[in-house]
Design goal:
The protein is mainly alpha-helical. Helix content is 49%, strand content 5%.
Length: 80
């Protein structure tokens, strides 16, 4: 079995855009610095479990909608 990367794929920017939420609004809502949201969106930082669940609660969606260990399918791609 190949070693699994520590990288966490995420859709934070997509959800923010869809809901009209700024990085600062999200950061204030989950109790982090707004630059932390930028680091997450650029893949420079993987969230703690607490932060991931806080972001999911902020958007009122399951964590799996935002975070994944596997890349998300591109929008418009068909899934089998």
């Amino acid at each position: 079995m190949a070693p699994r990367s520590e990288f966490v794929h995420q859709r934070i920017a997509m959800l923010r855009a869809e809901r009209g939420v700024s990085r600062r609004e999200l950061a204030d809502g989950v109790g982090v610095h707004y630059q932390t949201i930028g680091y997450l969106e650029r893949g420079e930082f993987s969230p703690s479990l607490h932060l991931a669940l806080s972001i999911a609660a902020f958007f009122d969606v399951p964590a799996e909608v935002i975070f994944s260990l596997e890349p998300f399918p591109r929008l418009g791609e068909q899934t089998a």
